[in-house]
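Fold it.
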Amino acid sequence: MSVRTTLVAATALALSAALAGPAPAAPAGPAPAGPAPTAAEAGHRATRKAIEAAIEGGVPGATATARDGRSTWSATAGVGDTRTGAPRSAADRYRVGSITKTFVATVLLQLEAEGRLSLDDTVDRWLPGVVAGHGNDGRRITVRQLLNHTSGLFNYTADEDFGRTYFLKDGFFAHRYDTLTPAGLVAIAMKHEPAFAPGTSWAYSNTNYVLAGMVIKAVTGHSYAQEITDRVIRPLHLTGTSLPGTRTTLPRPSSRAYSKLAETTTGPTYDVTALNPSMASSAGEMISTSADLTRFYGALLSGRLLPAHQLKEMKTTTPVPGDPNSAYGLGLIDATLPCGVHVWGHDGGIHGSSSVAATTPDGRHALALNFNADWTGDKDAVVVAEFCGG
């Protein structure tokens, strides 16, 4: 019941899937004696229990924020540093992985609203000759097909050599600080034949959003990072959100990030906090906070970032094969939860970090969550608990 958005499907490093999921996790046990919960806390009791269940299941630490109208609630659990025992913070900065895609799609839709491009432009119009070889043809793929994952292009992070080099233990520790270019990432994908003819099916591919970032630069003359900063981050005052480029460290406050760096969920756990996020590029390099993500998705769904026509285009979805409860729009996942509540958002992950953001269609009720682990933890259960209750 979830959309696979992994950076590399061969490993347990989940940019794992998103909003629809199983029923809420069972309560973690009786609460310790103490003061009666506030009304705000009582309204999120199921959410807190689902977070605590994730910690009991092996996630080192979690941080979450929910907004409902003018009310804001935050919770943390577990630890941010397994060596020192330091707790997580509600203000933690963390790598958000594929949640970056919603920001990229928002900028491209703003550019369409300004008449600077059409979503039906071919990729080749803006990036001539970049998508070519082994049956790939940028003259047959549109910008819209990049954004809704119907291009058929191979997912570069699923390349076996790439996976061994950047996602498994020996390769990661030898190459974690490598600087990779968007053109180089696309070139990896071009070594593979497409999965299907453009527009005939759906398959999640990080290659699509690396190309989308390159299109932004071709249209504006500025990097996707600069355009996201100028058009979204600054206007919304997202003070904890950034596009690090090649910066390998996390800004403070932040916690450590942990991974198995293996194809299994057992074995040693490694600190993978420091890495060069250019390996994710415009498909997943961003850093943010739970509070910033709830503000962003609330603003997006309430119509503050896009004109009505572009928001409608963003919310025009393609079915996800094998998942009747989820569909993919333009950088935005549409999910129906088991209780029937309908939410929009995205999930994301990268080494040692697994996140999700979801909001109701009017943007009034939003949740964002991060686990500082990539091999375990049921984010879906937390989303269901928040929007469906106990």
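The longest helix spans residues 206-220.
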